[in-house]
Amino acid sequence: MANKVFAVFVLCIVVLSAVHLHEAQAQDVYKACFTPCHKDCTSEGNGGTFCEVKCDNDCSAKVEYDQLNFKP
Fold first, then answer.
1. How far is CA 38 from CA 42, 53, 61, 63, in A?
2. What is the pTM of this model?
3. Which residues are CB-neighbours of 55 under 8 A, at least 6 positions away?
4. I need a labelling partner for 17 at 20 to 30 A (CA). Which of 10, 25, 31, 51 fits?
5. 29: number of Cβ within 10 Å
6. What are the C-alpha distances in Å from 52 to residues 14, 28, 42?
7. Other Cβ atoms closer than 10 A to 34
8. Among candidate residues 62, 67, 71, 68, the one with its CA nearest the CA of residue 30
9. Counting beta carbons within 10 angstroms of the beta carbon of residue 56, is it exposed (0 to 12), middle (13 to 18) or buried (19 or more)?
């Protein structure tokens, strides 16, 4: 019985590690998209709030597409 509990525990750790790694990669993609997008948007004379919302929507969609391996 103890071996089964230990095996389940190890399996949970492996799964959680894989999920955390995937989230970290998504954050890197988001940052790489958001920073230049926001800089370009504000340099075009748009307001900070507008650029924040625009770039957040655009970059969030890009992260989701990348996670689904969807290429528009």
1. 6, 9, 15, 16
2. 0.60
3. 33, 34, 37, 38, 41
4. 31
5. 15
6. 35, 17, 9
7. 19
8. 62
9. middle
Residues in the chain: 72
6-60 per-position pLDDT tens digit: 777 777 776 666 555 556 666 788 899 999 999 999 999 999 999 999 999 999 9
Residue type, 47: G
b/e map of 58-69 (b: 16 or more CB within 10 Å)?
ebeebbeeeeee
Name the token pair of 42: 């504000």
The pair of structure tokens assigned to 56 is 């957040």
